[in-house]
Amino acid sequence: MKDDQAQQLKFAYWVPNVSGSLVVSKIEQRTDWSYEYNVRLEQTAEQNGFEYALTQIRFTIGYGAENQHESVSFSHALLAKTEKLKVIAAILPGPWKPALAAKQLATIDHLTQGRIAVNIVSGWFRGEFDAIGEIWPEHDERYVRSEEFIRALKEIWTTDQYSFKGKYYQFENYTLKPKPLQQPHIEVFQGGSSRAARDMAARVSDWYFTNGNSVNELVKQISDLRTKAALNGHQIKVGVNAFIIARDTEEEAQAVLQEIIEQADIQTVQAFGKATREGGAASREGEGNWAKSTFEDLVQYNDGFKTNLIGTPQQIAERIIELKNAGVDLILSGFLHFIEEIEYFGEKVLPLVRELEVEQQHVVSAKSA
Ligand SMILES: Cc1cc2nc3c(=O)[nH]c(=O)nc-3n(C[C@H](O)[C@H](O)[C@H](O)COP(=O)(O)O)c2cc1C
């Protein structure tokens, strides 16, 4: 791979495999949760420079997601219709056990020439766990379980005769065959930003996904995360959520944001805010994903407005470079009118990002020569 390419920021998008789209608002959203729409969307994303797609796991209605396709099977079906895109399947410890997840993902890895990845999410929505008869450990305990889950996945994928006696999972001389195609193993992402989430990421995850945030806040978060990871001899990449509104003028982009918020589905946003608080959003130390979210932030349910990728292509490209300089490796994006806006992004924004990256690379090379 050329040096410039190795330095390139990566782009992912949220797969709308649940209904209701990415903003909890009555504004028109030209998107759809059907398989047919999602195939067109992923092919458009692949052609427009996106390298990853992220599916969501939801068992019951929440923030308006009335219908929810299951994430692993949906991811697999999406992979069948693309050639390069990697699809990240979301998995919740609790409903899934690590032995099943490891096997399911290894098989999909073979069926898709090594293009599956996994996002281990620890859960915020007690109601759905109650509804499906799963225990609901308290906030930090959920990460104890997730960490055992991730360690088990990685060991199963890379070693034979795996034995482990954990609090949540036990194994006795277990050997998975075939192992996944991807080496050293399938990439493991995680969602969650609380102290417990961060500490887990700094020990075991390959990627840390966090909610949208300002550059200043992200700098603090990433420095904390990477300092911890370095102490553990671990390397971690960072993906940040952003709801992107790119328009020819800044006024147009801001007007769209205003309209999304003005037309917010107030009751659903409030119910979502309540569920995240009950799920321990703020967690004890107050650093969790929604710890500081206002009503407006919650209209995009992963704080995607805060990242401020809202404006003209030039403004957005420059802000994306600031995020890169803050230590971000991947932008996880959402759009209002998904297919048409991914096309606009690929045509108008991404080329500017790539130009700025090359310019920056040349400045760095000149300085170090
Ligand atoms: C990018 C991203 C994707 C997520 N996807 C899901 C999901 O599909 N299903 C789910 O239940 N939770 C999902 N979560 C929520 C996390 O699992 C976690 O419960 C939440 O971020 C709160 O964590 P915290 O309090 O530790 O910060 C996601 C979080 C992030 C940042």
Automatic annotation (TrEMBL):
Its EC number is 1.14.-.-. One of its GO terms (molecular function) is monooxygenase activity. Coiled coil: none annotated. CDD domains: Alkanesulfonate_monoxygenase. Signal peptide: none annotated. Keywords: Flavoprotein, FMN, Monooxygenase, Oxidoreductase. InterPro entries: DMSO2_SphG, Luciferase-like_dom, Luciferase-like_sf, SsuD_RutA_monooxygenase. This is Dimethyl sulfone monooxygenase SfnG. It comes from Acinetobacter radioresistens SK82. The gene is sfnG.
